[in-house]
Design goal:
Strand order of the largest sheet: 1-4
Largest sheet: 2 strands, antiparallel
Number of domains: 1
Order of helices and strands: HHEEEEH
CATH class: Mainly Alpha
CATH architecture: Orthogonal Bundle
Shape: rod-shaped
């Protein structure tokens, strides 16, 4: 790679580049810390999510069995009629929450459906089971969004670290080395020139 193009081989520019690379290296270290923290957070979150999904799937399977029993006992028409006694709609407020600067949605439940009329005990039991896991369903969905956002940010951070380590920092180091070599060459040439002039002046005096 040719590093000479547009490079000023001066002490001032060398000093400026060394300040820049120090800043870039510190930024790279910070990004590495962020990457490592996000990676730990992602691993822990995935583990938690895996357990919560298993639990919610088991509970949903139980609810499905209860609903199936209600359908067999009452019939589809009666189930639909009694389900109409469930009033009020779901109201939620979605707020931003963050971890290491990564924002994900936090769902706050403002109101949930309620059973206001009479309902067959079989269907009532199934409805109550659904209401009992409702908060957990919302929480799992929220946690999935959190995991996705963390994974996305981890990918971005890792790409930045790779770019700095493999492209930006090596490029700065090559330019710095080039300038240092040029300055050394100039110093050597100046030394030789001074020695030559000194030798000529000495011979002239003789």
């Amino acid at each position: 790679m040719n590093v000479a193009g547009g490079v000023r081989p001066t002490k001032g520019y060398l000093f400026e580049l060394k300040k820049r690379i120090t800043f870039v290296e510190k930024g790279c270290e910070f990004l590495k810390m962020k990457r490592d923290h996000l990676a730990r957070e992602l691993r822990a979150s995935i583990e938690v999510l895996r357990g919560r999904r298993t639990d919610i799937e088991n509970r949903l399977e139980k609810v499905y069995d209860e609903l199936a029993t209600a359908y067999l006992s009452l019939g589809p028409s009666e189930v639909k009629s009694q389900v109409d006694s469930i009033k009020k709609t779901l109201e939620v407020d979605v707020l931003p929450k963050s971890v290491m600067g990564v924002y994900y949605p936090f769902v706050k439940i403002l109101s949930k459906p309620e059973i206001e009329g009479k309902m067959d005990i079989t269907l009532y039991k199934a409805a109550q089971s659904i209401f009992e896991i409702f908060d957990e369903l919302v929480s799992v969905a929220e946690f999935e969004a959190r995991v996705e956002k963390i994974a996305e940010e981890l990918g971005k951070t890792n790409r930045k670290v790779n770019a700095l380590e493999n492209i930006v920092i090596p490029s700065y180091k090559r330019i710095i080395k080039y300038i240092e070599n040029k300055l050394e060459e100039e110093m050597l040439e100046e030394f030789v020139r001074i020695k030559l002039i000194g030798g000529v002046q000495k011979r002239q005096k003789e």
